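User: Structure with pyridoxal-5'-phosphate, tokens only please.
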Amino acid sequence: MLTKTKIYLSSPHMGGSEQKFVNEAFDTNWIAPLGPNVNGFEEDLKDYLGDKNHVAVLSSGTAAIHIALQLLGVSKGDEVLCQSFTFSASANPIVYQGAKPVFIDSETDTWNMSPELLEIAIKDRIEKYKKPKAIIAVHLYGMPYKSNEINAIAKKYEIPVIEDSAEALGSNYFGKKCGSLADLGIVSFNGNKIITTSGGGALITKSEQLKQKAVFLSTQARDDAPHYQHSSIGFNYRMSNVLAGIGRGQMEVIDDRVNARRRNYDFYKANLSKHHSIEFLEEPHGFFSNRWITCIKTESYEMREKIRLALQEDDIESRPLWKPMHAQPVFKDCLSFTNGISEDLFSKGLCLPSGSNLDQNDLERVLNIINNTLIS
Ligand SMILES: *Cc1c(COP(=O)(O)O)cnc(C)c1O
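Assistant:
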């Protein structure tokens, strides 16, 4: 009997030269959170994102958000406006700082932060409490959020934006790379992301000085002295030179990875659009998504579950869309500005297998099961 292999939602996909860079780290004994791969990976990312950007590679995307909040001076009692429809790591660092997340719901055309609700929330908070310290907006599943609109509101009220581009390296917005669109940006190289270092992230700033401050904070905040001298609290958040070697190899194939993920989306869309009960998230004019994960929105919770369970039966991984933060038990006491859109997506939406390493047989296996489920 032919045994079928498991199909994952999004699995690591090495390009070939990662091991060369890792071996170099071993050969030169740079087995530390500094070294030529760290600098080289930062240069690669800077080249990719554009020269105006300065990049600090860190141990995770979550660490990058945490450092970004510190650079903006977010501290105890402050409020930070955060997209509700996201992974919890967008919001958790707000709590690490003793600050309070205020969640903002999504809009239908990008599934990301609604600019309209954002402005309503800002006005409300200024009137009732005090001005929020920062805005965290997310390019979810690789689809850019409405950066022009969000930046315009942020500018009007003078609130800095942190761009959570953890899922959107390789996406762009009117030709500008995601990760470089706001005051501070972050990306992630976790194992499931579009490129990976097994675990890792980066903070993107608009000045060398801010980058240096991020490096200082993420390497234990050592003052300039022969002994260990500290005048602020530091973190151990720098990326290892070994892992940065994987990142350098991955940067050589990032365009291929984006193309492969977009092909997955095109395949699913071309073959599933005949079902009127299934909707896809299209790119608005000027938006270019890396299609990190192809998502579908079904007609109902029941239909979504039927598809998910049928896929599971065949050892195929799929997953409901992110559960919005305002509906998470851990954030139940947080303020939120909602419109029902993210809850509707959570109840009816499904993430389909989307790895850049899926082959035609894998995609057809997924397709056949969905087709059979919808016909029966
Ligand atoms: C993965 C992810 C993060 C966190 O990145 P890590 O590198 O896993 O810490 C943050 N935000 C979003 C939207 C993510 O998907």
